[in-house]
Amino acid sequence: MASDLEAKAKEAFVEDHFELAVDLLSQAIHLEPNKAELYADRAQGNIKLNNLTEAVADANKAIELNPSLPKAYLRKGTACMKLEEYQTAKAALETGASLSQDNSRFVNLIKECDNLIEEESYTTIPIQEKTIAQDVNPKDVQQQDDLPEKPPVAVNKPKYRHEFYQKHDQVVVTILAKKIPKESITVEFGEQILSVSINVPGEDAYVFQPRLFGKIVPSNCRYEVLLTKIEIRLEKAEPIHWTSLEFTRNVIVPLRVNASSVTASQRPSYPSSKQTRDWDKIEAQVKKEEKDEKLDGDAALNKFFREIYQDADEDTRRAMKKSFVESNGTVLSTNWKEVGSKKVEGSPPDGMELKKWEY
């Protein structure tokens, strides 16, 4: 049955019916989920439909099932080039070329990748797009307003919610999925792609494959499966601010800075009346003084509790919050198994009475 669907999909490719081809191959994959060729062929259909992140995911699956399948690397290289992930594309194409008897197509694409990588290395200054307030003809705006409205498209609500925050060198993505077995989760990193798959037996598969706002360093990215979420840490390739998690062509990309070219002697110095200050040294000294600061009484106790909370895992933090709040500040526990399933009663010091406030 799967072979019949595969044959029909090839006919659909010949007739340029790519959506039909992808649908037929999806049905065939459902029947034969471990056949690498089906994923590689569906990757080609997704490339034709410009579903590029899906194409990369299919190519990765084909490579996982059959690491010696040349066309899987060709599909991945092609899709990554269209996504402007030239380093990832080149690596895939070079592997495919080493496995293919006829590697002429791989060689041509590798040369194209080299040219694009070289072009990308130059810093360019983007031109600000015009807004309505900047020399835009009002007649053009009026013509756009007169266009018929597109019918609303129903969007399926994702199975799991995700959110993100960032530091200057890192983006942290959180997928709020509770009690998911680690073996059911697959996370892969590309040059500008994050791919997350959750396959729990008996449930519909969840796939999250955004093209990221900026490029990352895949080898330095990692993830952790916790009780209530999946926490993914992406290392930025450049220390720029991401205005969103996903890529958009409407945002002007900031100028790139070649960090390797900035030496210690080129660090910015700040003038004073008589001497140049070493601000890095001053910052390190302040941090050391804060760490070595000796406090007494409540201040020392508060500092001790802050250090415990800062270095604790998620369950320990939850235990500390719950016990402190429910006991009106008289109990502080770090054992979630002990306090998680019951209300924490107050425990005032000897000789004192716990007062319950009424609102």
Detailed description of the structure:
With 359 residues, this protein is of the alpha+beta class. Helix content is 42%, strand content 10%. The protein contains twelve helices and seven strands. The longest helix has 17 residues. The termini are far apart. About 9% of the residues have low confidence. Belongs to the SGT1 family.
Write a concise synopsis of the structure shown:
The protein contains twelve helices and seven strands. The protein is of the alpha+beta class and 359 residues long.
Q: Biggest sheet, strands in spatial order?
A: 1-2-7-6
Mean of residue pLDDT values: 78
Uncertain segments: 123-136, 257-274
Q: What is the count of DSSP helices, taking H or I runs of 4+ residues? A: 12
% residues in beta strands: 5-15%
Query: Can you count the beta strands?
Result: 7
Q: What structural class do helix, strand and pairing data support?
A: alpha+beta
- Biggest sheet overview: 4 strands, antiparallel
Tell the overall outline: elongated
The radius of gyration is: 28 Å
Please provide the ordered H/E string of secondary-structure elements: HHHHHHHHEEEEEEEHHHH
Q: Termini separation (Å)?
A: 69 Å
The portion of residues assigned to helices is 40-55%
Present the secondary structure layout.
Elements: H1 2-14, H2 18-31, H3 36-48, H4 52-65, H5 70-82, H6 86-99, H7 104-120, H8 138-145, E1 161-166, E2 170-176, E3 185-189, E4 194-198, E5 206-208, E6 222-225, E7 230-235, H9 279-292, H10 297-311, H11 314-326, H12 336-339
Antiparallel strand pairs: 1-2, 2-7, 3-4, 4-5, 6-7
